[in-house]
Amino acid sequence: MRTGGSWRCQLSRTMRLVLRWCRPHRAARRGGRCGGRVSQLWSYTKVMLKSLYYNSLTDSDTLFDCIFEPIYWIVDNITRWFGVVFVSLVVLLTSSVVIIIYLFVIPIILSTYPVILSCWHLGCGHWLLLMVVFHYYKATTTAAGHPPKEKVHMPAVSMCKRCITPKPARTHHCSICSTCVLKMDHHCPWLNNCVGHFNHRYFYSFCLYMTLGCVYCSISSWNLFVKAYDAVERYYQTPPPEFTSMDTTGHKCIIFLWVLTSSVAVALGGLTLWHTVLITRGETSVERHINKKESRRLRESGKIFRNPYHHGRLNNWKLLFGVEKRSHWLTRVLLPSAHLPKGDGIVWDCIFTRRDPMAI
Ligand SMILES: [Zn+2]
Ligand SMILES: [Zn+2]
């Protein structure tokens, strides 16, 4: 009897639970089939939408990246488009300076300067022009270098979120070129190209020779500029009859030449100096930011950061210019040379051994 009673008791409890569970469904049926379906569809839609973007690794950085994505897209596209304008501007302004020198400066040098000084100006000027044109052409047309897309075994330090491919050491993604770049330094709008492993030397040499060329032009044309400025000022105050229109055009062109070359010498000189410091330290522009952050982080825990790609000041320069013997300073640095840089840009010599860790 006792067993039968407990069985009945169990059954009634189960029935009560089933009825309680069924109550909302009955209510939903009472409320109408339509309302139930809508709420069911809504709950399915919510699950579907969440399944599209849910990621356990999502954090505030990812959220901000998503919000700013349209702005990045606009900036990247504008920079890409402006690259063509900037390159045209470099070609146009450099050509105008060269034309002014050939039309107005060289005739004055040949007619007034001694022969030795004339030869020096012609030789030096044409050497700088050759170096600027060669390095600018090579820097704009040489690809910076990209990691291989096909599945090959290569040492990688991380994965690129955009390309979904492994990233070797010193490789970074360029959002303007939409690809990963080996030993990426920066994306240069004046070259309309990324500066990386295969064209870093061309970029630096262009900056160096362009700065030297502008300094040379502004110093050597200083006397001509002062004379031209005085002449133009006198002409506008009281136009004398002995001045022809060709004279005033020549004077104005010399003023334009001096103002342009001295402005570029200051602006580009600053940039060249900055890159000189970076190369001496064995860093790229991107690595400067990363290394700065890393050294601050390690300093807080009482450690010192050491750059693994700093092979010594002189060796860093030899690596950049590809100098392997003394004669290379002449043939590879002071003369145009199209030799390839050392290494493939994927595997890098690191100055540390296992016993000598990165942070001490
Ligand atoms: Zn990438
Ligand atoms: Zn780029």
Plain-language structure description:
The structure is a single chain. With 360 residues, the protein is mainly α. It has a domain at 95-143 and 197-334. It has ten helices and six strands. The protein has helices spanning 2-31, 33-53, 60-112, 115-141, 200-220, 222-237, 245-281, 285-300, 313-321, 328-334; strands at residues 158-159, 166-167, 172-174, 179-181, 186-188, 193-195. It has a two-stranded antiparallel sheet. A two-stranded antiparallel sheet has the order 3-4. A two-stranded antiparallel ribbon has the order 5-6. Helix 3 (60-112) packs across helix 7 (245-281). It is extended. 22% of the residues are buried. Bound molecules: zinc ion (2 copies).
SSE blueprint and pairings:
Elements: H1 2-31, H2 33-53, H3 60-112, H4 115-141, E1 158-159, E2 166-167, E3 172-174, E4 179-181, E5 186-188, E6 193-195, H5 200-220, H6 222-237, H7 245-281, H8 285-300, H9 313-321, H10 328-334
Antiparallel strand pairs: 1-2, 3-4, 5-6
The protein binds zinc ion (2 copies).
Residues 174, 176-177, 187, 194 line the site of one zinc ion (ZN).
